[in-house]
Write a structure and sequence with these properties.
This protein has 2 domains: 1-42; 47-138, no CATH class. 60% of the residues lie in helices and 0% in strands. The protein has helices at residues 2-42, 51-62, 81-97, 104-121, 144-152. The structure holds zinc ion.
Length: 163
Amino acid sequence: MSDLSGERWQAEVDSRLARLELWADEAELADAVVGASQSTAGGGGTDYPDLDSWVADYMCATFSRPLGGEFRWCSKWREHREAVVRLDALWCSWKALSRDPSLGLSTWLHNFLDPQLIVLLSSRGTFSGCSSERNEPGAALCSRDALDHLLRTPVCPIVRPVN
Ligand SMILES: [Zn+2]
């Protein structure tokens, strides 16, 4: 009698173990699917060793615009100091926000990428003088000499007291 209940007990244990293994396999598969979709959509989990690879392999590979009229891009973006600053800021924010699986990517797109793309790609923006055949990084807003002159020039004339 006790052997029979022992056999039943063993059968129940084996059955439960088999179900647990099945659940574990399903959970592992679900994790793999979620990880793959996050990697595809946001790039989370993909490490880019430097800004150049992030720009080439993620940003330029993911976002596109019809170039030439309203939108400009420069393949020599490294020669545009403003572009380097803006793209580096985008990469840093992307690294931080793409790890958030819920609102990170949406936040990054709306609050970081979209405003930067307007400045970078607009026909009056960072690459305004560039095309697929031409690279014109453009002049800085002011030169060092102009800035030095400005700093040496008094803003207001000195007002002397009247005697
Ligand atoms: Zn250029």
